[in-house]
Amino acid sequence: ARLVVLLSLLGLAAGGKLLVVPADGSHWLSLREVLDVLQQKGHEIVVVAPAASLYIRPSKSYELKSYAVPLTLDGVKKELGAFLQIPFEEGSFLTRFFKAYEGLKRLGELTVHGCEWLLKDQELIRYLEESKFDALLTDPVSLCGLILAEHLSLPSVYFLRGVPCGLDFEATQCPRPLSYVPRDFSQHTDHMTFFQRVGNLLYEIPNFFLCDFGFQPFAKLASEFLHRDVTVLDLLRRGSVWLLRVEFVMDYP
């Protein structure tokens, strides 16, 4: 009798159908290893990515569905390379901040335009609607996957290093007190003097501007596509599972 019960539960453990909307670059390199293991465990995986991608290529581990974007592969490499060079440049806080501002703005525009082309691909969207996926896996550093998860009414799993401006902390209501957690560009550790803590407060101010121009276009795009007012935090809060890639040598506790 016990054997019959256990055998009847095998159907519940069957592999599911997973939609993956990745971010390109190093984000994809981490996610690709996860997809290989998921495929070995019997899951059916469909990856949606732009035709001009740095690393996303067809694989036996998943089915790749690509969509056209108005940018060549060389153009993608040039834009991403310029942005990734910024953290290694020396200079004052204001100099580095404005370089990061311009780089993030340009990269954000390209990401939003790419997402817009995906959402306008009616044939691909129709395929996704008819495929009956069980869940969506994405890196929320790009919000396109979150918009699709909302449109398809799918539970979403986030696989991420983090979201700029601490939006991941805000969306999950995770404490990140300025007295203990150093902000970007501050070069402080988690052990700060009183004046460093005061300075840390000032380093938080630019995040309000960075988030506004960096993510607000996604909120506008999502509102237009979903036909209702949506904020970035609304989208982030719908995540069912957050899988954070944290390295304690690199990240402050």
From TrEMBL:
It is found in: Membrane. Pfam families: UDPGT. One of its GO terms (molecular function) is glucuronosyltransferase activity. GO terms for cellular component: membrane. InterPro entries: UDP-glycosyltransferase (IPR050271), UDP_glucos_trans (IPR002213). Its main location: membrane. It is an enzyme of class 2 (transferase). Its EC number is 2.4.1.17. It comes from the Eukaryota. Residues 1-15 form the signal peptide. It is a single-pass membrane protein. The keyword Cytoplasm does not apply. Keywords: Glycoprotein, Glycosyltransferase, Membrane, Signal, Transferase, Transmembrane, Transmembrane helix. Belongs to the UDP-glycosyltransferase family. PANTHER family: EG:EG0003.4 PROTEIN-RELATED, UDP GLUCURONOSYLTRANSFERASE FAMILY 1 MEMBER A1. This is glucuronosyltransferase.
